[in-house]
Design goal:
It holds the Pfam family AstB. This protein is an alpha/beta fold. The protein contains 17 helices and 15 strands. Bound molecules: N~2~-(3-carboxypropanoyl)-L-arginine.
Length: 446
Amino acid sequence: MQAFEANFDGLVGPTHNYAGLSFGNVASRNNEKSVANPKAAAKQGLRKMKQLAELGFHQGVLPPLERPSLKLLRELGFTGTDASVIERAAREAPELLAAASSASAMWTANAATVSPSADTADQRVHFTPANLASKLHRAIEHGETRRSLSAIFADEARFKIHHALPGTPALGDEGAANHTRFCSEYGAKGVEFFVYGRSEYGQGPQPQRFPARQTLEASRAVARLHGLSDDATVFAQQLPDVIDAGVFHNDVIAVGNRTTLFCHQRAFLDQPKVYDELRAKLDAHGAAFTAIEVPEDEVSVEDAVSSYLFNSQLLTRTDGRQVLVVPQECRENARVAAYLDSLGRRASPIDDVLVFDLRESMKNGGGPACLRLRVVLNDAERAAVNPAAWMNDRLFARLDAWIDTHYRDRLAPDDLADPKLLDESRAALDELTTILSLGAVYDFQR
Ligand code: SUG
């Protein structure tokens, strides 16, 4: 059946800030305690959505979560009015208030792993929200994420939204940031590629410096839940060294689309074997696999981590050509810029490069690919999606005005102690549920 890839980007929430919460994510640590601009962050993300929609790509929006999370703070023993909960948390445990306030749900590549209906045993589109167990500020996302997904993909005959895996180190799951799907056409059965950082029960090597967030056991569980067949799944381990160099998700070093894998030379353990397995399994599904491997001597892992070259979106245009969507930082790194310029001269399946300013998100380690969740849909499934979630000129204008009304243009770490931020954030989200026809998805509305 005819199908296409839609990208659902996370709308940046009003509490976007730099709290240095993600050990192992170099940008998050480097920008800890700097002053954020939530309004600019939200507008940068929104402009990407609008421009990609204008170019003919299927573009949707996912809402931010309720932050600060009073639910978390109350679960951790802070009591009293909402204002006194925030005030006490700010005084006694600012790190917990920061975790409760993070706008990290903007990186919807971590919202869930998604398998299209062409791949799943029951021919529904399957979503497993990621437990994000490795970081407190992210481990609190999945319940609310599940609610948002259920408000947008509500038709249970077509969409199956699982619960997250148990949130424990053995089953750390970071969602689609460690998952790519290869296929001949989006509507044909594909090969799903799961990349993990370590195995809890296996013997493989482990990173020494930074945590490996995704386990093999979690990846296998998601594949089982989605009813994927063995002949259509490949599991590969990240090189532990590159996790230690700041590649905390596979989408910092690799991106795939249809039959193309664009990755660094140092992405996976036993990389040639990974290619062979992908090639063989894709071949059996009538598709010819191509790897575009970028060598270390042209672009180092360090360049990849600082520029986010591979945290790009590789998209198929309506004319069948592929475009790479990269952050502006790629233009500011001479080696990466030279590599991108050389693409036109090489026989490459990447035909065009689009550059976006996503600086606010990038400073927390979130590039173009982090900001989007890919959902392959056929026409019938598309018709079942909440129509208010699709980006178009009208939605852009409404969201742009909504950001102007509700967002601050400056948020410093100390501002998280301000109880007015909670009221502002709730007022914004309350209006958003109307704009996106979500119903009462937030706790404060129930
Ligand atoms: O989980 N940063 C996020 C970035 C996620 C990027 N996603 C993908 N690569 N798909 C993370 O590390 C930083 C928040 C702070 O420090 O305030 C943060 O959570």
